[in-house]
Amino acid sequence: MGLYVGLMSGTSMDAVDAVLAEITDTGVDVCSQHALSLPMDLRTRLEDALDTDRLYARECWNLDAEVGAVFADAALALLEHAGTPPSRVAAIGSHGQTLYHAPDASPPITVQVGNPNIIASRTGIVTVADFRRMDVAAGGQGAPLAPLFHAFAFAGEHDRAVLNLGGIANVTLLPPAGAGPLLGFDTGPGNTLLDVWTREHLDQPFDTDGRWAASGQIQADLLTRMLEDPYFEAAPPKSTGRERFNRSWLNAALSGQGQTRVLPRDVQRTLVELTAVTVGAALNAHAARTREIYVCGGGALNRLLMQRIEHALPACRVTTTVALGVPPKAVEGAAFAWLARERLAGRSAGRSSVTGARRATTLGAVYHP
Length: 369
Fold this sequence. Notes:
The protein has helices at about 40-50, 55-80, 115-125, 135, 145-155, 190-200, 210-215, 220-225, 245-255, 265-285, 305-310, 330-345, 350-355, and strands at about 1-10, 15-25, 30-35, 90-95, 95-100, 110-115, 125-130, 160-165, 170-175, 185-190, 290-295, 315-320, 365. The protein is α/β, with parallel strands linked by helices.
């Protein structure tokens, strides 16, 4: 038994999600959660770094230090909110902020910033970070990392799937114990394109409940062009990110409209459909027996998106991870808290069946204050 903190900033880069969890050998209890918004200047520079082909080393290290300081602030704010002194926390698991993820490149690369030395020093808590690169070094995708936690926290007597609707959508396929290998992969865009388009046209961080999208109409030609991306037909193991699904990718799809004017709300509606259709296709192809879908991540709060996923999976019961005892926005943070525990115990948390690595690996490096 012990208290652990998990820190996560995903593809949308809107905030650091911090979770305090009590973890035993048999389960996880989320004690508190807190979101700390990224400063706008820092967020802009991170987005610029993602959108440029050349990132100068000095800027990269500046971002590493500044993101590390924000992550430390998020951990300390969480503990203050929970009334928990740092001395009671066994470890922090920090994902960091991904700047570049190209596991299929030569050489394969994945880069997360958020200096864990700063987190450990400022909080006084042992910090585990750099979770992805060992799996990549072993020939894996380095993603998704949450499936083993999903198996620990959410597995049941029947086939289940956990769908994380973060910036990128990913699924974990959970067979009953001993009934088959654990599988998980990224299906494609989750919220990232929706949020980019909303910020551009509404000057809001996201489309609350999908209300703006609901006012639009699906553009069938645009949806067809987006679905032609070969990623959607590629077999797992596979992972992706904003290196592929970004504003330039959307621009290329929109350019095929020619002179036809598409209303911004219609683009938003079509992007919702893209996420729902690709999630549905992935689960129908790889989890045909599954009848229970548990959704987490920010997209679980998008009412229209949830309705469209239900429409794409009519044979399934689609609900959120609240039904399994963990709030949707706390799942990823809790996963990195659990991954820190596994690393300190010396247990492997990477799985070949998920990432395609040559062997199961221990994930993360340990930083002492």
